[in-house]
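Just wondering, can you check both lines?
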Amino acid sequence: MNRKKVFVFPCGSEIGLEIYRSLWCAKEVDLWGGSSVPDHGRFVYRQHIPDIPFESDGSFLDHVNKLIHDQGFDYIIPAHDSVVLRLAEAHHLRSLACRALTSPLETCRIARSKKLTLEHFQGTVPTPRLYTSLADVSSWPVFLKPDVGQGSKGTVLASSPQEAQYHLLRGQELLILEYLPGKEYTVDCFTDRNGKLLFAGGRERRRIANGISVNTRPAKLNELREVAAKINAKLHFTGMWFFQVKENAGGELALMEIAPRLAGTMGMYRNLGINFSLMSIYDAEGLDLHPLVNVFDIEMDRALGGKFKLGIDYTDVYMDFDDCLILDEQINTQAICFLFQCLNKGVRIHLITRHAQDVEETLRKFRLDRMFDSVVTIAGGEKKSAYITGAKAIFIDDSFSERFDVSTSLGIPVFAPDSIESLLD
């Protein structure tokens, strides 16, 4: 696969920032971002384009198409729900100059409306009751929610008819929904180009801030996978998507909403091995995918950034060199930060590489010649798993085939360069 030029818009959203964390070190991707307003994206994306019209602006599509032609973008990844629908419409009408990585238009249209989503899946999966008026409400409180929106913006929990009426008269059109009092879950999913659901991983939304899950852990409930399969069979998805469910008063999981895009907290599963953004590019390129998920405890907590607690204890780190420790002829500063962290903790570090030149000379070039406890150079046909010893080792490599071999042969945790962040204190 040749390197692809990928444009993310709007890149400063929580979604856009997670896409950056997913793709910034992928050797297959030349990553660009764009924003309509000066936001955090310009501090993160090394290649950033400002002053793009909002998706609602009449000049938006012409502006984006000119950027695609001028810069030679292969793909555009929408990072906001409204942009998802706008680009899906343009792609459907063949008026977008490159492919947008999202699901088909009808899926995006249904997902953008809470009402259409609930109507579409009624009878397929449990859904909260949708009241047509306050006179129909049989149990209080009720949940008021905009038909089109994201996060918790505009939502209200109303405990009485008077309170609900007050909010309904304030001008914004709100849906009147059955209140779901139980635990809330998000299920992160990936469907390939043939409609096969390759991955569905649940996570509990343990702490919410501004409608965003800021503390989460994997939720291993069979029901979540079953709901995912039913949704996937009812609606045509392509690539990354997610849905949210919540327990009703009887403890049954009820569907709340669906989104055919990345979720910011999908970074938790990315650090277990599922890189949704990169998989979407691979799938668009026609590659067959075989998801590999690490099996260890993980908890993600967000406070304008991600921190991780991994349920692993390791004494040795085996790291690849090309396209891992060294990226585009520069030192991967996140990887080197982790290696110095290992030195501070007394963890042994080993370089294991197929480097074509004299590796010792290259290490001296980058002033890394005294960094490692051992340096192993192997031939093309050899497997790296044969050179890894110790039950408490971990392996870091940009190659999926190398990680797959080590994982299946040795049963130790394996990491891609983009998931080194989960190893940092």
About this structure: The radius of gyration is 23 Å. The first helix runs from residue 14 to 23.
